[in-house]
Amino acid sequence: MVKVQKGFTLIELMIVIAIIGILAAVAVPQYSQYTKRAKYSEVKLAVSPIKSAVELCRQRNAGAADCGTTNGGINSGVTTAQLTRAASAALVGSVTLDGGATPVITAIPAAAEGFTAADTYVITATIATVAGEETIVDWVESGAGCDNGYC
Question: What CA–CA distance (Å, rounded) separates 26 from 65?
Fold first, then answer.
């Protein structure tokens, strides 16, 4: 009489559980980092209207060095109301602009969702002379948030 075996052996089940454990050990930290980057995009997005306003101000004023809130002229690119509005998102604590010769925009996240005020997002303009006028050709990301891998 031949006895037919049905089902899995204990070693086969243990191998499957070990494989699932290894995959989970890799996937969970990656997922956690992915969700933090997705949430940090709200902080990055907050500087977008300020960046556009600075570029527009420099273009209107033929490369004027000061397009910050202290300019106050008719062609001033950024107002304090715009900075306040940019910081009104849930995960954004504040947005500041140093509109000097090389504009620097800094966004500080609110202390929520695992972020702290130290996770700053800073973009600095790269200025070049194009057709005889100084213009912004690029923005460089930096800050502790980028160092932590959120950018």
Answer: 49
Say if 114 falls within a structural domain. Answer: yes
Looking at the structure of the chain, the number of domains it has is: 1
Indicate whether 30 pLDDT > 50: yes
Q: What is the pLDDT of residues 92-124, one digit of tens each?
A: 999 998 877 788 999 999 988 889 999 999 999
CA 65/CA 80 separation, integer angstroms:
18
Report d(CA 127, CA 134) in Å as an integer.
Answer: 6
**Residue 57, in any domain of the structure:** yes
Side chain identity at residue 10, one-letter code? L
* pTM, rounded to two decimals: 0.77
- Cα–Cα distance for residue pair 39/144, rounded to 1 Å: 15
